[in-house]
Every structure is written in structure tokens, then in C-alpha cells.
Automatic annotation (TrEMBL):
Belongs to the class-I aminoacyl-tRNA synthetase family. InterPro entries: Cys-tRNA-ligase, Cys-tRNA/MSH_ligase, Rossmann-like_a/b/a_fold, tRNA-synt_1_cat_dom, tRNAsynth_Ia_anticodon-bd. This is cysteine--tRNA ligase. It is an enzyme of class 6 (ligase). Keywords: Aminoacyl-tRNA synthetase, ATP-binding, Ligase, Metal-binding, Nucleotide-binding, Protein biosynthesis, Zinc. Residues 31-326 form the tRNA synthetases class I catalytic domain. It comes from Triticum aestivum. Its cofactor is Zn(2+). It comes from the Eukaryota. CDD domains: CysRS_core. The lineage of its organism: Eukaryota, Viridiplantae, Streptophyta, Embryophyta, Tracheophyta. GO terms for biological process: cysteinyl-tRNA aminoacylation. HAMAP family: Cys_tRNA_synth. One of its GO terms (cellular component) is cytoplasm. It holds the Pfam family tRNA-synt_1e.
Amino acid sequence: MAAAEDTAAAAEGAPPLHLFNSKTKKKELFVPRVNGKVGMYVCGVTPYDSSHVGHARAYVAFDVLYRYLNFLGYEVNYVRNFTDVDDKIIKRAEQNGEDTSSLCTRFINEFHTHMTELQCLPPTVEPRVTEHIKDIVELITEIIKNDKGYVVDGNVYFSVSSFPEYLSLSGRKQDDNLAGSRVAVDPKKRNDKDFALWKAAKEGEPSWESPWGDGRPGWHIECSAMSARYLGHVFDIHGGGKDLIFPHHENELAQSRAAYPESEVKCWMHNGFINNCGEKMSKSANNFVTIRSIMTQYHPMALRFFLVRAHYKSDMNYSDEALEIASDRVYYIYKTLHDCDETVSLYREENISVPVPAEEQKLVDGKLILFLIVVKQKLEQQKKKQQQKKQQQQQIPQNKPEDHIQALAALSAEIKSKLSILGLMPPSPLAEELEHLKEKALTRAGLTEESLREQIEQRVAARNSKQFDVSDHIRKDLASKGIALMDEPTGTVWRPCERE
């Protein structure tokens, strides 16, 4: 990217940001349509079942982008929808013997709970398809008026052959354009590649009035209508999983431009899959792991950390081992920050105001991994000095560690700031989060605090009687369950760890 473009972007008040555009297949300098404001639409869930970790991947990825845009100072209008009328919803409601509205409300509420647990900020607006039928009908009317759609027996179809730009997003060839997910083969269509904009009503299904008869929207038209309703016909970012590139987003692009030729998305963004045993995790493949089931075993921030470790565009492999590693990393970070805060608090009353040494300030301004390493080193130094201070009791130390304390405080503040941008800084006190992480570790190990304490006492007794093979066996057995024992002067303590 040319330096002049970077300079221009920075001059607008924010550092340059480059995003990968799925349509152009390259990274591009992000320049919002309106200076200081960003319009972003992300396709939401179809609430007929519990959300799985693949859903979490998408919404955590775009939450990080949302947070970062806010951090850069942009005013972001973030729209994320709910597809609350769909073939799958109708089928599941019929199986359950309940109406579609109650089914959707139940799973929408569960989805909101999971997003809160994962610290995903709420979007600006969360429209539902059933609340925007009027907008959808108006959009379909424009498509028909422009000779890009046709009516057959109360159904309305989009004419793919009438739109030369079709497949410009996915880059597919017409020969590859076969019926796919939710694209049914229908003899009423002029071309088997055409897709439904409006479906004629069927007995027992929810329906609404329209110029073509009672019916309900097709899958793709909803997002074209709702994005235009809240962001206008031209907006900055449209996101979703890469499985939506075709047919969903391809059809969205076609519908929007067929109705209003000026319609444009400046940047299309798509996150990678979560794979389970080498296959994309999905409900249709019945190989999904629900967010709810993960939360019973792991701290929510362990799942979020696992999801943000990889680049949002890349595919990820799900495994319990990967989640345990993520949980261990989160515990390490929170424990380091907690110990850091406790050490700094010991000197708070001394009102230290000396500047951070230049060399340590460089580390504060550097990369996050350096923060963690240096914080640990400084923390160990401060603990030793604090122990010396206690031993001297009434004596005033000759060399107070003011410079290191200031550096430690600065490092801690910088880490917390970066974690907040990533959505990894918990709202509760760190001590509470550490206890929560330990509780989840005990659950995974199949232990209680009492049963673990008994094993620790048995190991201490074995060591005291020089039965080291017994004590080693207890330690190794606990380590295999993700429980690490540490012998300290005050006694044996434990912490979660990766299984050995």
C-alpha cells in the first residue's frame, strides 16, 4: 500500500487499517464511506437449535473487529440479524409440537446468554426477519419492476440469467452453480439456478400477505432488505462465515443490485471454519459441539482465547486438548496480572511518582508476549524485595524499588488495555475469575475441593514417611487430570495445568 494512502488514513484521526476483501481477494486499506463512521452487517443465526462453537467463531471474530473499530475511534453501526422464519425452524417446531415463535425466542435467549458469557458486545440493532416483512416485500417489488424476478403460482424467483454480475463475489463458474444448501430444485423455476425470493404459503406454515399472495420470504432476501433498512444501500463491511459466500452472500449481492444498482458493500469479510475430525462443524453434518456443553467444562474466556488465537480467516481444529491449552494460558495471564496488582498495591501508599525507566518503557510499548515475560520477571524480583522488607521490619530499606514498581504498573495497565480490545479482560475481579477457572478444572478432573484436599494430604503424609513412590504417583495421577501440585514453604497448593 502506498505511503501516501497510509498518511491520508492516519490524517483522518485513526491509524491505517487494512482488511481482506473476499470479493477482490486481497487486503485493502479500509476507508469508511463516511469519515469517522462505520456500517457493519453480520449474518446471524437461524434459532432452531442451540448454537455451536462454529457460531461462536464467527461472532467472536467480528466482535474483535467491532471492538477494534471502536478503539480506533469509529462510531460503528453494527447490525446482526436473526433468521426467525425458515424451513428448519418450521420442521423443528412441528417435531416439538410448539409454534415457531416460541421456538425461536427460546434459542435466541440462549444465544444472547452465550454471547454475554463470551463477552461479545451487543450489536447496535438485532433485527428479526418476521419484523421486516414490509421491507422484504418492497425490495422484491423493485426486483420484479427491474425485470430481474418473476412470479409463478404465488412464488417469486430471482432470474440469475438476467444479472450478468452473478458469481462476481464467489468467483465461481456457471457450471459450478448447482443447487446447494437451502437451494431447492424446483420445476416451477425457469432455470434451476434461479432462487426463491418469496415462497407461496403452505398449510400450517407461518405466512404473510403480499402482492403475489400469502407466503413467506426466501432465505437470502432477508439480509438484503434488513441491511438496506439499517445501513442504507451502500455500507462498509458485510461479514459472516466463509460458507455463506455462496450461495447466501452471492445472492444477497445480486438481489440488492438488481433492485438498486447503486447498492454496494465496500468490504466483504468471511471467517474460517471450525473443523471437527477434519470436517466442517455444522448442524447438518451432526458433528457440532454446542457452546452450552463447552461452558459446563470450561471458563468462557478459555473458549474465547481458543477462538482468537488463530487468524480469523483460517480454519481451526476443535479438540478438548486445544481448549485445555487455552484454559491454561488464560489462567497464567490472569494469575500474573493478579499477582502483579497485589505487588503494586503494597507500594500504593508510598505515592511513587518516578517515571518508568526508558528501557522498560520500550517493552511497555512493544508486543504483548514481551509484556507477560517481563511482568513475570519483575514480579519475582518484587516478591524477593518485599520479603526482605518484611524481614527488616521497622528498618527502612536502603534501596526502594520505585522504578520497577512503576514499570510493573505500566506493564499491567498496557496488558489489560490490549486484553480489553480482544474482549479477554473479565468484568469481575481477577481473584474471582481464577477461582472460576479452578472450579472448571476440578469439574474436568472429576474432583471436588474436598477430594483433592484428601489426596494432597495423603501425598504429604507419604512424603513425610519417605514413601516417595506413593507421593510421586499421586502427583502424576493428578497431573494427568489437569491438576498441578506445587510445594511451597507454607504448604502444598494447586493450580490448573495442561494434562501430562
